[in-house]
Automatic annotation (TrEMBL):
GO BP field: plant-type cell wall organization
Superkingdom as given in the UniProt entry: Eukaryota
Domain Expansin-like EG45: start-end pairs: 58-160
Predominant place of localization: secreted
Name of this chain's protein: Expansin
UniProt function note: Causes loosening and extension of plant cell walls by disrupting non-covalent bonding between cellulose microfibrils and matrix glucans. No enzymatic activity has been found.
The organism of origin for this protein: Chara braunii (Braun's stonewort)
Bilayer topology annotation: Peripheral membrane protein
Length: 262
C-alpha cells in the first residue's frame, strides 16, 4: 500500500511539472527543479489599458532610478486588483489590444512597477475592482493608437528576461535597520519572501515595507551580509552570498551574483 502511494505521488508530481509551459530565453535555466516552474506562462486575462509617464521615478514599487535603467519604457502601473499591495511588483506581463479599431496586431511586454490608485483622476479605470494597466507612454503605442486614450486588452504573466545579476537598492545601516529592494528577478519577477544573514550566518526574515521593498529592524548585522529571495514557495530561492558590505548602506545600489538554493 505504501509503494502504491509513493508511485501515485510521483505521477502527480510529474503531471504538475509538465502542465507548465516552458518558456524564457533559449538555454536559460536557474535550476533543474525551478526552471520549468518559473517559466510558466499564465492564461490571458481581460482588462483595459491607458497610458502615462512616470518620469523616471520608478513607481510605487520603489525601484527608482534602477527601475528606469532596467525596464526602460516597458513598465506599467496596475490597478489595486492587479498590484495586490505590492505582490505584483516586478511581474512581467504580455499585453495585447483586442476588439477595437485602434488595436495594432502586436503584443508588448511590460514590468509592473507602479500602482494606479483608486482615487481621482484614476477612479474611472482603476477603481471598483477593475483589472487595469496604466502603461508607459512608450509601451502603449506598440499595441494601440494613442489617440484612442484607452483600449480593451488581454494580458498574461510571462517569464521575465534571463537576468544574470540581481540589482539591489539599499537603505539603512548595519546597526539595526536594513531595507532592500530587489530587481532583475528571473522567472515570474516577483519576490515572495526575503531574508538576510550577517557574517554569523543566521537568516532573518524580512517584512514587506511597501511595494517591492523589504525591511528588517532592531537587529544589528555584521557585514558581509547575504540576501536570500524566495521566488517559488519553499522550492526555489536565489542566494546572493556576502553581497552587502560596509556599515552604512543608505542609497547604495548593488549588482550581485546569485546561486540557486532550495
Amino acid at each position: 500500500m505504501g509503494s502504491i502511494r509513493l508511485l501515485l505521488g510521483a505521477v502527480i508530481a510529474v503531471l504538475a511539472l509538465v502542465s507548465f509551459h516552458v518558456g524564457g530565453a533559449n538555454g536559460f535555466s536557474i535550476g533543474s527543479i525551478c526552471n520549468p516552474l518559473l517559466s510558466a506562462t499564465g492564461p490571458w486575462i481581460s482588462g483595459h489599458a491607458t497610458f502615462y509617464d512616470d518620469h523616471g521615478r520608478g513607481g510605487a514599487c520603489g525601484y527608482g532610478r534602477l527601475g528606469s535603467e532596467l525596464f526602460g519604457g516597458r513598465y506599467a502601473a496596475g490597478s489595486p486588483r492587479v498590484y495586490l499591495g505590492g505582490m505584483a511588483c516586478g511581474m512581467c506581463l504580455e499585453v495585447k489590444c483586442v476588439g477595437v479599431p485602434a488595436c495594432k496586431p502586436a503584443t508588448v511586454r511590460v514590468t509592473v512597477t507602479d500602482l494606479c490608485p483608486d482615487r481621482p483622476p484614476n477612479t474611472q479605470w482603476c477603481g471598483g475592482g477593475k483589472l487595469h494597466l496604466d502603461m508607459a507612454t512608450a509601451a502603449f503605442p506598440v499595441i494601440a493608437n494613442p489617440r484612442a486614450g484607452h483600449v480593451p486588452i488581454q494580458f498574461r504573466s510571462v517569464p521575465c528576461a534571463p537576468y544574470k545579476m540581481l540589482k539591489l537598492h539599499l537603505r539603512g545601516n548595519m546597526f539595526g535597520w536594513l531595507e532592500v529592494t530587489a530587481l532583475g528577478i528571473p522567472g515570474s519577477g516577483k519576490v515572495l519572501k526575503m531574508e538576510v544573514a550577517g557574517s554569523d550566518g543566521s537568516w532573518v526574515v524580512m517584512k514587506r515595507a511597501f511595494g517591492a521593498a523589504w525591511a528588517v529592524a532592531g537587529r544589528p548585522m555584521r557585514s558581509p551580509i547575504s540576501v536570500r529571495i524566495a521566488i517559488f514557495g519553499k522550492l526555489c530561492k536565489l542566494v546572493a552570498k556576502n553581497c552587502i558590505s560596509g556599515q552604512n548602506f543608505n542609497g547604495v545600489d548593488l549588482s550581485c551574483a546569485y546561486s540557486v538554493g532550495y
